[in-house]
Design goal:
This protein is an alpha/beta fold and 468 residues long. Helix content is 40%, strand content 12%. α3 packs parallel to α11 and α14 crosses α16. The protein starts with 22 loop residues before the first helix and ends in a 10-residue tail after the last strand. Bound molecules: ligand F0G.
Length: 468
């Protein structure tokens, strides 16, 4: 009934106790968190599927390498090891370390984005778009339409719609497009991959207009797995080879090493253009730290370097993606509407379909994430209207087509029985969905990245929008 679930290519040698809070404790904790799973204390969470970012279990090799981290302020040996690993596996010449992915986004956006800039991307990501907008740029979604339809089974829903990109270039002018921002995989679509064929075609179009491509490489190894599994002619190529192919078609990358690289913190910006690298090194010393640590401790750079090596090992990436697939297939078998096909890092429940009786202005995904927490102390993340924020020009909510609750699987952390526990809970909440009759409304709405610190109340209570 369910797909094969290969034994994990690791065993557990250190454990962290977790505890299931009582229903009363869950109700109290959720109220105290303003019905926002982002504001729950992790001690009140049993299975934490809020994110796969920095929540990975490191290997014994990563931990042992941390002991030999070089904490020199300048010229750390650990930086040169990291630089070499990025150059070897990702193939970019210049590597600028940052504390995490958004540090790289900040530096890149400050250098390349100006008021009047237009940045096309295969769907937005929260921090990425925010940095573009803070620098005066406008984001444009150029992903294929299939990506916005949770039920569509397109194997590469991260693909660029070349007609959309071409139209944008003609409308705003190539000179106003500092770069095309391509994510592999696409987080907000539930971890959907882009194909190498589509990337090559996009490359051809952008090269004709002299527009660089910057890759969001946070989950590019997961993307490489899907290419190996699904794209004709790639089955016999190694993950490392496919990863290098992805990067070869781009001019640089922002990396959150908290994802693919099994680290708890870290990131980098990498580029081929020496002038851009020079500008980035000038900014990194202002915002992150010296250009040979960029906000990471030497030991963190060791962990990332080793994590990069582990990330491309076939058995590791297979176990990772197939574990996510297992949870997804259990939910599909039970009739829960989820984003199809199942992505690389998360199973996303279609909250708009589950709670179709709630209006979008009552935040169905935020509401469903709260209900899941109440049922089983499983923490999921809202990836819908709350995450999308308000349009900077009109001030209105942006209503994305996808209204998702993301069950994000940390790497090497949970076992199959944990996933079965989660699946049973989601199925339970789904079967009882008619009982969820009130949505949520903001009681406190931060002006940027509101999903992190926003507070809510059941929709019938009094509402005040801060700043309104
Ligand atoms: N790009 C993508 C595709 C991401 O998923 C993230 C983070 C970032 C950039 C920013 O990296 O967190 O290291 O600063 N995603 C996390 C998530 C937060 O839960 O999806 P960061």
């Amino acid at each position: 009934m369910y797909p094969p679930y290969p034994p994990e290519p690791w065993r557990i040698k250190m454990v962290e106790p977790i505890r299931l809070p009582t229903p009363e404790e869950r109700r109290t904790a959720l109220r105290a968190a303003g019905y926002n799973t982002s504001l729950l204390r992790s001690a009140d969470v049993f299975i934490d599927l809020y994110t796969d970012s920095g929540t990975n279990a490191m290997s014994d090799r990563q931990w042992s390498d941390m002991m030999i981290g070089d904490e020199a302020y300048a010229g750390s040996r650990s930086f040169y090891r990291l630089e070499q690993a990025v150059q070897h596996y990702y193939g970019y010449d210049h590597v600028i370390p940052t504390h995490q992915g958004r540090g790289a986004e900040n530096i890149l956006s400050r250098i390349l984005v100006r008021p009047g800039s237009h940045i096309p991307g295969n769907m937005y990501f929260t921090t990425t778009r925010t940095h573009q907008e803070l620098n005066g740029g406008t984001f444009h979604d150029i992903i294929v339409d299939e990506a916005h339809d949770p039920a569509d089974e397109h194997p590469f829903k991260g693909n660029v719609d070349l007609a959309k990109l071409d139209r944008l270039i003609r409308t705003v002018g190539a000179e106003n497009i500092p770069y095309v921002s391509l994510a592999a995989t696409v987080n907000m679509a539930g971890g959907q991959p882009i194909s190498l064929a589509n990337l090559a075609e996009t490359r051809e179009l952008t090269a004709a207009h002299d527009i660089p491509i910057i890759l969001d490489a946070a989950r590019a190894v997961e993307n490489a797995w899907f290419i190996q599994q699904r794209e004709p002619g790639r089955a016999d190529q190694s993950i490392a080879h496919i990863l290098a192919e992805i990067c070869r078609l781009t001019d640089g990358a922002c990396m959150s090493a908290k994802k693919d690289s099994y680290a708890n913190i870290g990131g980098w910006l990498a580029v081929r253009d020496p002038d851009l690298a020079e500008q980035a090194r000038n900014l990194v010393v202002i915002y992150e730290g010296l250009h040979t640590y960029g906000g990471m401790a030497g030991r963190d750079m060791e962990a990332v370097a080793r994590g990069i090596e582990e990330s491309v090992e076939h058995d590791n990436i297979r176990a990772r993606v197939e574990q996510v697939g297992y949870l997804g297939d259990r939910l599909i078998a039970a009739g829960v509407p989820v984003m199809r096909p199942i992505g690389g890092h998360a199973v996303c429940v279609d909250a708009a379909a589950t709670l179709e009786h709630l209006p979008r202005s009552r935040f169905p995904a935020q509401t469903l994430a709260a209900a899941i927490y109440l049922d089983s102390a499983t923490r999921a993340a809202e990836r819908g209207t709350v995450s999308a924020g308000r349009d900077p020009a009109s001030g209105e909510h942006r209503y994305p087509k996808l209204e998702l609750v993301r069950l994000t699987i940390p790497r090497r952390v949970y076992t199959r029985s944990h996933l079965d526990f989660v699946a049973d809970s989601i199925i339970n909440v789904h079967n009882d969905r008619a009982a969820i009759t009130t949505g949520l409304t903001f009681t406190h709405e931060p002006s940027v990245l509101r999903f992190f610190q926003g507070r809510f109340a059941p929709a019938d209570s009094t509402v005040t929008r801060s700043g309104a």
